[in-house]
Amino acid sequence: MKKQYDYLIVGAGLYGAVFAHELTKAGKRCLVIDKRDHIAGNIYTHEVEGIQVHQYGAHIFHTNNKEVWDYLNGFAVFNRYTNSPIANYKGEIYNLPFNMNTFNKMWGVITPAEAAAKIEEQRKASYTENPKNLEEQAINLVGVDIYEKLIKGYTEKQWGRPCTELPAFIIKRLPVRLTYDNNYFNALYQGIPVGGYTAMVANMLEGVEVRLGQDYLADKAEWDALADKVVYTGPIDAYFAYKLGVLEYRSVRFETEVLDETNYQGNAVVNYTDAETPYTRVIEHKHFEFGTQEKTVISREYSAEWKLGDEPYYPVNDEKNSALYVKYKALAEGENGVIFGGRLGEYQYYDMDKVVEVALARVQAEMA
Ligand SMILES: Cc1cc2nc3c(=O)[nH]c(=O)nc-3n(C[C@H](O)[C@H](O)[C@H](O)COP(=O)(O)OP(=O)(O)OC[C@H]3O[C@@H](n4cnc5c(N)ncnc54)[C@H](O)[C@@H]3O)c2cc1C
Predict the structure, then answer these.
(1) How high is the mean pLDDT of the chain?
(2) pLDDT at residue 1 tops 80
(3) Is pTM, for the whole model, over 0.85?
(4) Which residues form ligand 1's pocket by a CB distance below 6 Å?
(5) Distance CA 45, CA 108 (A)
(6) Residues marked as catalytic
(7) Sorting pLDDT into bands at 50, 70 and 90, what band is 236?
(8) Is 151 exposed, middle or buried (0-12, 13-18, 19+ CB in 10 A)?
(9) Does 153 share its domain with 14?
(10) H or E stretch covering 299
(11) Which of 14, 174, 211, 305 has its CA at a distance of 20 to 30 angstroms from the CA of residue 135?
């Protein structure tokens, strides 16, 4: 007997939304479900005091992929927001990423040649052949001053461990710019969808049946009975009931507050780079959209240990977890009629543009 739907799409995040949109456009009958009570997955934004709040962490869209940029512009108008975070080290403010503004503030140097000479002098003074840990690696790249004020405390809070106990590879590529350029991303296209990401995803899902608050794994057999194929964007290990072990994540905890003032910190993103401030960043959401509301909403970000049941944020792509993922992937390949995708289904940190890129490629292959 013909099933009610051609595809059941588990997860109304960006990956699921691309799939649902493309399949529906091609005439397939799709049902999207999500266990949360909202669409858009981790890029979900919702309005508080007229401000779009990024509930699962600040999301700044940036890409060099014109196809992806054009695709998403079909569902939203992007504003001109450019990510220019600043660092607050015990009340001293520095521009990020490390550039001439940072070096000028740090050492008073004016020209790129002076800055390069200063960095070189600092690197040479404490250079370690074959750096064994993150501290040695960072000092090799930018010298002691920048390491002490802008890297050490922040990184230790982020990872919950001293930099001397962290592997060097974590920061193999520290961008150092000898221009007065505070634009964090080296991307051709950048911006935030006007009105928030949720509205963008809602446009992608227009005309698609969506059921929220539905956990696929809780009633898997019943859901499977509804559709010929499944696109699963939840955690791959959860799909297999963790039978080979649990894939680990790094987590973040957000403390969000409405403040009775118009402008708390003058920038969307402020990193606290000292070790004493317990949070790593403060996000002031209105600045993503140049908001002029009377109030403001801020989120303090804390690094948090992850345990099963917590919100999974960043996959830990170390040897142990990568090896475990390979085993789950092999199991997934044996699951007939199920496509595993997205950041949880592929246990992969994907920026938004990459998710759209891989989802488009996968859905096109599916329809070929
Ligand atoms: C803190 C943080 C900040 C980020 N910032 C940026 C940024 O600035 N720029 C950028 O480009 N990218 C950023 N990203 C990446 C971005 O969040 C991802 O690219 C994107 O959210 C991935 O979409 P997805 O559909 O794969 O996953 P998700 O958005 O996680 O969607 C998966 C969905 O599946 C649902 N689901 C899971 N299991 C089940 C189940 N059993 N039943 C039903 N539903 C289920 C979940 O509820 C979820 O809604 C950031 C990521 C994090 C963690």
Answers:
(1) 96
(2) no
(3) yes
(4) 10-16, 33-36, 41-43, 57-61, 215-217, 233-234, 252, 313-314, 342-344, 350-353, 355
(5) 41
(6) 173, 177, 250, 281, 301, 349, 351
(7) very high
(8) buried
(9) no
(10) strand 296-304
(11) 305
